[in-house]
Amino acid sequence: MPTSTKLLVCHECDLISAVVVLAPGESAYCPRCEAKLIRHSGATPEQTLALTLTAAILFGIMNLFPLMALNLQQTSREATLLGAALAMWEKEMHVLSLLVMLTTLLVPALQIALEIYVTVLALRGQMSAHKLAAPILILQKIRPWSMIEVFMLGLLVSLVKLQDLAEIIIGPAFWSCAGLIVCSAVMSSMLTPRNLWLWTQRGSEHG
Ligand SMILES: [Zn+2]
């Protein structure tokens, strides 16, 4: 662990204070207004990589397996995420179809790929400003366009509405989608600029 002190500006009152290196789980507070300045989450690049790879597997299952199956009068229909988006396209709902593909397929795929890339750079101790700037900027720009949570909410509403009309069997993609939401939330708390900075210092100490 680095032993040098750093300067931090309080986001509440602009006081500049020196912050000693924190142990995992510790937080630093502003001496004047007592606002929380930073917290050492204790997350390591290894843990983050494990989580990003889990997210990639869950994302794969979410796209390859059916979300749900409908049994109605002895006929059964399965629906995958891509299948649902393509069905919307065929029903002339082009904008909606493109939005579903963008917010639940393309953006989350790009997001997970970039998170794996940044984490692998951190693990190999190859983090430098020029390598990190572009992926982190893209990650910040696309994050609001990843709407798997909104999709899940819509899915739950449709499940409640359809349950009186047909027998519904929930598919593996549904549970993967739920797992992916939890994974993404934990990942965004681990892959913060603050943690990347800590990992850079760890890398430079080892090298
Ligand atoms: Zn303050």
Question: Strand order, biggest sheet?
Answer: 6-5-7
Q: Uncertain spans, ≥5 residues at pLDDT below 50?
A: none
Name the structural class: alpha+beta
CA radius of gyration:
22 Å
**Overall form:** elongated
Please write the string of helix (H) and strand (E) elements: EEEEHEEHHHHEHH
Helix content percent band = 55-70%
- Mean pLDDT metric: 86
Which range does the strand content fall in?
A: 5-15%
Largest sheet: 3 strands, antiparallel
Based on DSSP secondary structure assignment, what is the total number of beta strands?
Answer: 7
| Structural domains: how many | 2
Span between N and C termini?
13 Å
Please work out how many helical segments DSSP would assign.
Answer: 7
Small molecules bound in the structure, each named once: zinc ion
